[in-house]
Amino acid sequence: MSGGRVRAGALGAALLACGSIACFHTTKVDKDQDAHDAKTQAPAPANGTAQPKQSEGGASEQPKVTRRPERPGRPGLAAAPSGLFVPGGVTQVQQALASRGYLDLSQVEDGRIDLPTTAAVRRFQEDQGLARTGNPDHETVRRLGIDPDALFRKSSDAKKRGQ
Amino acid sequence: MDSPVARAKHARPRGRHQRLFAGLLVLAGLLVAGRLALNPWVSTHTRDVLSSLKGYRGDFDDVSISLLHLSYSIDGLKLVQVPTPPGADVKRPYFYARHIGIGLHLRELIQKRELVAAVDLEGPKMNIIAGKTKETSQTKVGDPELGAKLQRLSPLEVQRIQVTHAELAFSDQTGKGSPSLWFHDLDGTVENLATRRGLSHGEPTTVAASGTLQKTGQVSLFITADPLDKALAFSGRAAVEGLDVHDVGNFLVQKADLTPEEGSIDIFAEFDAHDGRIAGGVKPVLKNIHVGSARSGVGPQLKAWIADAGLRLLSDRVPKRHAVAAVVPFQGTIDSPQAQLWPTIWAALRNAFVAGLQSGFAQLPPQDQAQKQDVLPQARRAASGGARR
Asked: Whole-angstrom Cα distance, residue B372 to residue B367?
């Protein structure tokens, strides 16, 4: 009888601990969770074209990392594809995709490589016989008729050298 | 009637055309003869290189070289570990590729006198086995210093490496259950890989990939790196979405002692490394998850019950959808001078995935300082070649 009480007490304590962990977790990730909820509660598109506006490649899901400023002579690194483009570069890619019928501009977030843009890039890459990564890389951009040298950010040293 | 001078005037262009045609014919003949003569030589040379690999036996179906396109291609390349690791399937080569093509850009070679190459891999398959000892593992081939040697060798820019329809199988035989992960339908690119700062155009090396993990998980990866930086410098993100828990059942049994009964998991990771420091976070999102114990007995059953109860407590925020999310941060230092860029990135990704699965299912709070650094020492060990992979 007393053994049963002890077991029940231990179980209760474990549940309390679990509950407190749960509270700690949910408080800490509330913002991320809400963003995630907003995304996953949206109705799923039937054909991939009528998707709601979303952040870059599921960026609302991504843990955020503080990055260093660009250092002279070194190329700038980025954790997301849009970080490699000059201002307005992503919009140029989106417009090129739209002009070829791969993307509906009303469904995308201007200047962000969001999920519809990624899906459109992937379809374009497949049609072009390129690797289907969904990332608008140099070769993809070139095949879209855009000069990659004008689209991707370069280090200040390379700019001076005219590369 | 035409005069002899007029006839000569008409004959001159015809003669020029004939000479041009003859010249082209000779050139085409030389190219064909060169190709016919070179192919056996290249084939022999390729066999010599493959037979000089330590610990691996190589074979291929066909090689060819094109002087016109400055390209080299090899079909059906297969590398098999010798001797075969105990417990490993002898029919699974370490590496196989349906087609590999390497080409040089003629324009850059003539105008800028730079070696600019492009590589195309079709249908490569790789089988990695992490064994309990080095002898039972099937992890890497070739010279670990190859990258550094290439950098010293010549100014070279690999403009693009394209991989299509790739497969990567990873089998962990270090513990119980021998769980395995299977990435397939993988497409990937590496762009702007240079051996000199001047050839990199002021842009980072970019790696992008997408594919499928097991039967259900959609994998995406994006990394930028500066391979010419003396300290490791890279930044990126990776995600696995919609992975059915049954697909990683063995993995969870080994890592968390839990048997998943239903649900799916998303794992998101982001990381940044510079000046010998790495920081990042892993966010596992569990959806509609129910777990049971992998072992019988009161202790394991209680652990499973608590984990399942914890999941229920956390997952009642959205009606009809049970999701759990928590960010597991990690940070640390990479101070080993032997640390290499790509093995470190691979180790960081692998450990992020394992940490995401493990912490997600174990429902642990954010780790304390000592545990946070657990990911990085593993990455450092793997990078310096000291870890089992």
From this structure: 6
